[in-house]
Design brief:
heterodimer, A: 266 residues, mainly alpha, 11 helices, 74% helix, B: mainly alpha, 13 helices
Chain lengths: 266, 275
């Protein structure tokens, strides 16, 4: 456990050195948030209510999505593990007396924690400053939102760890990321809130793991009844379920992959 | 030795084509991978297009623009940004090249460094974005019932080329920030990809202030908004003069000058990181 703590702290510290990059990301996320929000405001100006969302809900979700873009790394970056599988440095990782998955999870959650504080919070604050966002008054809801964000980071790690493990079989995971980069933002509800999709498609996408990265946290914040069971607890349960499933799958595949790994000497 | 002006002007494009071709040949060694990645890129473009259709589908009309006109604006913007991304998109990796020292190597080669930078990892995969966007543009032009006067027929290619040139200039100029702050790649993206996101919808959707600033400060209005108004023969809903729609070629030239200035002053100040 202490090792994981140290790895988490390292991940956090490593990202804290890229100050200019963090500032640049906050700027970009805010610009995209403003553009998306203005398009949706124009849309809701024409149709005040669509599938239970109004303009305020939609704009709030836009900024939740931009805030989670860094935490959940929906469009990358991939885990460093991927490059290490390709070039063989993963052999060093496997020699450590710590499971591969939990090591990288500690590292990635360190990164996510840094992004949450220094990227998500400022981006969301810009949104709250420029637009009329729907912010819950109930402190209990904020606890649920924070839990949901943390679970989003865990689900995101679970997915990216599986993408990385594909490297044991494929060597080059660019193809995996090509699919993930295409499917991720759409299925997460980042391109557009899933609410705007045709209801049949939206219902399917809501149950997939990608929705746990943006759509579910956004609905937890908004307190929507479209969550499983109609409550925030239902949404958190769905996220926790996906986190458990993905991590279990990751653990299973890790043992399969490490049995077949051949690292070339040299 | 003074080279004849013709060689001096033609040399960069010629070497650009040759270097880009080298990268294409390298990538064609893995044809299946190239084809699959291109297909995924085009599916990504289609999903963005679907988002535009969904938004217009719910709204019916935005700022007086229906689905067909909306897709015309989207097609103009996506085609121009897609072409610029293929031609000059690699320039945004400047900071990375500076950090690793690869940029120093580029400076020692007998090829203009901007050409080397722009052709670095050139990939025809980006055609996967350009082809569907161009197809949407053609379909939208048919669907919108454009009144094809000789002026419109003649201006269409001029407008398209100007849009691509404007986007290339935006890409180059915004990447030059990385001469000063090597980590600032993402900041440039707020102008490049952000510009693309902004111009995908009719600008009037964003209100007067955004239209004004996208016309006079960051002239992105000339990528898709003014050309669309020209092709559809509509007055500007925000009340700007109609003459602006003939300005894209001039804006393109002006932005090229700005980009060249940014690049040259950045290059002059550049000191290697020593790594």
């Amino acid at each position: 456990m202490r090792v994981h703590h140290a790895v988490f702290a390292r991940g956090l510290r490593r990202y804290s050195t890229y100050r200019a990059a963090t500032l640049a990301h906050v700027l970009t996320n805010s610009v995209f948030g403003v553009i998306n929000a203005m398009v949706l405001l124009a849309l809701f100006d024409a149709r005040p209510e669509i599938n239970g969302y109004d303009a305020r809900d939609a704009v709030t979700q836009v900024f939740v999505a931009q805030a989670l873009l860094g935490v959940a790394a929906v469009m990358g970056p991939p885990l460093d593990l991927e490059e290490r599988i390709r070039d063989g440095a993963v052999a060093t990782d496997l020699l450590r007396p710590v499971p591969l998955q939990s090591w990288w999870m500690a590292d990635d959650l360190g990164r996510a924690a840094f992004q949450l504080v220094f990227r998500s919070v400022p981006t969301f604050a810009v949104g709250a400053l420029l637009f009329d966002l729907r912010l819950p008054d109930d402190p209990g809801r904020w606890v649920a939102v924070l839990t949901s964000f943390v679970l989003a980071a865990v689900v995101a790690f679970g997915l990216r760890y599986l993408y990385a493990l594909a490297g044991f079989w494929l060597t080059d995971t660019r193809g995996v990321w090509a699919v993930a980069g295409l499917l991720g933002p759409v299925a997460a509800g980042m391109l557009l809130p899933l609410t705007l999709f045709p209801p049949a498609l939206a219902d399917v996408l809501r149950l997939l793991p990608w929705a746990s990265m943006v759509q579910v946290p956004a609905e937890v914040l908004l307190g929507k009844e479209s969550l499983p069971g109609g409550t925030a607890a239902g949404g958190l349960a769905l996220q926790a379920l996906w986190a458990a499933v993905l991590l279990a799958l990751g653990a299973l595949l890790t043992s399969r992959a490490t049995r077949r790994v051949v690292v070339q000497g040299g | 030795m003074v080279e004849p002006i013709r060689t001096r002007v033609l040399w960069p494009p010629r070497i650009y084509v040759r270097l880009a071709w080298t990268w294409c040949r390298a990538l064609s060694q893995y044809p299946a991978s190239l084809v699959l990645l291109t297909v995924f890129v085009s599916l990504g473009a289609l999903s963005e297009m679907a988002a535009v259709v969904i938004v217009f589908g719910h709204a019916g009309e935005l700022a007086g623009f229906g689905v067909a006109e909306g897709l015309l604006v989207y097609g103009l913007s996506a085609t121009a940004f897609g072409c610029a991304d293929m031609l000059m998109g690699s320039v945004e990796r400047l900071g990375q090249h500076i950090r690793t020292g690869a940029f120093d190597t580029m400076l020692t080669r007998p090829v203009p460094p901007l050409v080397l930078l722009a052709t670095d990892q050139f990939t025809p995969r980006r055609l996967g974005r350009i082809i569907p966007s161009a197809a949407v543009l053609v379909l939208a032009l048919v669907w919108c019932d454009v009144d094809w006067t000789p002026a419109r027929v003649l201006m269409l290619p001029v407008l398209l080329v100007s849009s691509v040139v404007i986007c290339c200039a935006v890409w180059t100029a915004s990447s030059c920030v990385q001469f000063l702050v090597t980590d600032a790649r993402a900041a440039a993206n707020s102008l490049t990809y952000g510009g693309q996101a902004l111009t995908e919808y009719p600008l009037a959707v964003y209100g007067r202030e955004v239209v004004r600033s996208a016309t006079f400060v960051f002239p992105l209005a000339f990528v898709s908004w003014q050309p669309a108004l020209f092709l559809l023969g509509r007055p500007d809903p925000t009340g700007l003069p109609d003459a602006l729609r003939l300005a894209p070629p001039l804006v393109a030239l002006l932005l090229c000058a700005v980009a060249a200035l940014c690049w040259r002053s950045g290059l002059r100040r550049y000191r290697s990181t020593g790594s």
